[in-house]
């Protein structure tokens, strides 16, 4: 009798099964939504009058709105809860947003909060059949790792765009501190009016690099996004040659994120 009771206790409960189904539905919705944007929505938007810049802004505004609805779907279906601090300071002219990358949906939430954001995205997404339509219509920047990418990102900032960059280049390995590449700092020094760090924490960890979508946590996860104080990149540019200034800015950002994430961990404990 005791063994039978223990076996029953190990079975997934109803809330867990619901969240598993809702998570699967979220992934299906995201993929089908991207495909629908590519084959239906953006071709129709392209028929509207306007120049290249107008079409770009329409595409980004459409993606931002749909991403916000997607986040709301995940929230209302019980997959996650979320908290955003300081969203009103996102989306300014020439602003470089530097964020850590603990989960798969980080960029989704950030773009959902900013109506006309540019973003540096992984090269592999340009060939993804579900994502390449929205990415190309919005004219996001491919993270090819080349000097051309750095120049393109700096040009976007000098034109007054808001640019989102994840300096890790990929999702953070759970249990490890984020490791920043210097590309984001180099972009900041070349073209940013201001740099704004955005600290993202996810508790419990989920949708990490090593986890399949169906390995969900025992409870719905909490997504916390906090906008930090602005940093003037020119303060670092004045400290020496570009390589040295880039290294100092990168170290400053790295230490900022380590400190803030440690604070979040202590608060969650």
TrEMBL record:
Q: Name one Pfam family in it.
A: Acyltransferase
Matching entries from CDD domains are given as: LPLAT_AGPAT-like
Q: Which UniProt keywords apply?
A: Acyltransferase, Membrane, Transferase, Transmembrane, Transmembrane helix
Transmembrane spans? 20-45
Task: Tell me yes or no: is Transmembrane helix among this UniProt entry's keywords.
Answer: yes
* Domain of life of the organism encoding this protein: Bacteria
Per the record, the pathway is: Lipid metabolism
GO BP, one example? phosphatidic acid biosynthetic process
From the UniProt record, which GO molecular function terms apply?
1-acylglycerol-3-phosphate O-acyltransferase activity
Per UniProt, residues of the Phospholipid/glycerol acyltransferase domain are 95-203
Question: In its UniProt entry, what is this protein called?
Answer: 1-acyl-sn-glycerol-3-phosphate acyltransferase
């Amino acid at each position: 009798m005791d063994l039978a009771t223990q076996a029953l206790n190990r079975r997934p409960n109803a809330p867990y099964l619901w969240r598993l189904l809702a998570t699967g539905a979220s992934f299906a919705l995201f993929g089908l939504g991207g495909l629908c944007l590519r084959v239906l929505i953006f071709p129709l938007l392209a028929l509207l009058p306007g120049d290249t810049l107008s079409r770009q802004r329409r595409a980004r505004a459409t993606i931002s709105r749909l991403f916000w609805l997607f986040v709301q779907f995940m929230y209302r279906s019980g997959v996650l809860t979320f908290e955003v601090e300081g969203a009103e300071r996102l989306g300014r002219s020439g602003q470089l947003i530097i964020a850590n990358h603990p989960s798969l949906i980080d960029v989704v939430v950030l773009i959902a909060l900013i109506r006309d954001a540019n973003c540096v995205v992984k090269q592999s997404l340009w060939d993804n059949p579900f994502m390449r339509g929205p990415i190309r219509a919005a004219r996001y920047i491919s993270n090819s790792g080349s000097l051309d990418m750095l120049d393109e990102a700096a040009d976007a900032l000098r034109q007054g765009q808001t640019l989102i960059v994840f300096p890790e280049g990929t999702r953070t390995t759970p249990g490890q501190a984020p490791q920043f590449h210097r590309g984001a700092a180099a972009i900041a020094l070349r073209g940013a009016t201001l740099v704004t760090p955005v600290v993202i924490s996810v508790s419990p960890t989920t949708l990490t690099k090593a986890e399949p979508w169906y390995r969900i946590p025992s409870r719905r996860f909490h997504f916390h996004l906090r906008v930090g104080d602005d940093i003037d990149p020119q303060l670092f540019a004045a400290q020496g040659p570009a390589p040295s200034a880039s290294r100092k800015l990168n170290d400053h950002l790295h230490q900022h994120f380590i400190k803030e994430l440690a604070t979040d961990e202590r608060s969650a404990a």
